[in-house]
Amino acid sequence: MRSGVRLGVDVGKARVGVARSDHHGILATPVETLARKDDIIGSIRRLVDELEAIEVVVGLPLSLGGGDTASTEDSRVVAAQLAAALPGTSVRLVDERLTTVTAARALRDSGRNAKNSRSVVDQVAAVILLQHALDHEKSRGEAPGVVVDPDGGPPAS
User: Residue 137, SS3?
Assistant: First the structure.
């Protein structure tokens, strides 16, 4: 398992949830929710610098069958922008099927309603995404997903 902080990014149409791992890559915790109208690339770059993150894991929303959804291209665009803005920091796209649904269900089960959970659900989705990526790397000995080429080429494996 590689050491170093990783950021998890759950891209949504209105908000972007951000989570972080500890230095040992064991546990993901929520960081913040960013409004899409803000400079999300600059905000994530600031967090990468502040936390000395070695990697950014961006959720790739695929359908249950593995195909693209309405949000898939949006996540790819954000990941490519991050890869270009973060030279020397790996940006990876990782399958995030059902993370937002799982996050919303977990919050509902804990007694929170949808109205007062909107900003928190994005952070929880980012935590679920990042924890899945950390667990994948621990169990398989390889980083999850695919690396985003900062020069805009096809993703590397």
Answer: helix
In a domain, 1, yes or no: no
Q: Which two tokens stand for residue 27?
A: 């546990």
Say how many domains are in the chain. 1
- Pair type for strands 55-60 and 28-35: unpaired
Q: Which CATH number covers residue 92?
A: 3.30.420.140
Q: Is residue 152 part of a domain?
A: no
Q: Residue 31: give the domain boundaries.
A: 6-147
Report CA 135 to chain centroid distance, whole Å. Answer: 14
Q: Where are the alpha helices (DSSP H) in the chain?
A: 40-51, 72-85, 99-109, 118-140
Q: Give me the amino acid identity at 110.
A: S
pTM: 0.86
- What is the full per-residue pLDDT of the chain (157 aa) written as tens digits? 789 999 999 999 999 999 999 999 999 999 999 999 999 999 999 999 999 999 999 999 987 787 888 889 999 999 999 999 999 999 999 988 756 566 667 666 767 665 566 667 888 889 999 999 999 999 999 999 999 988 766 565 4
Q: Report the C-alpha gap between 153 and 147 in whole angstroms.
A: 11
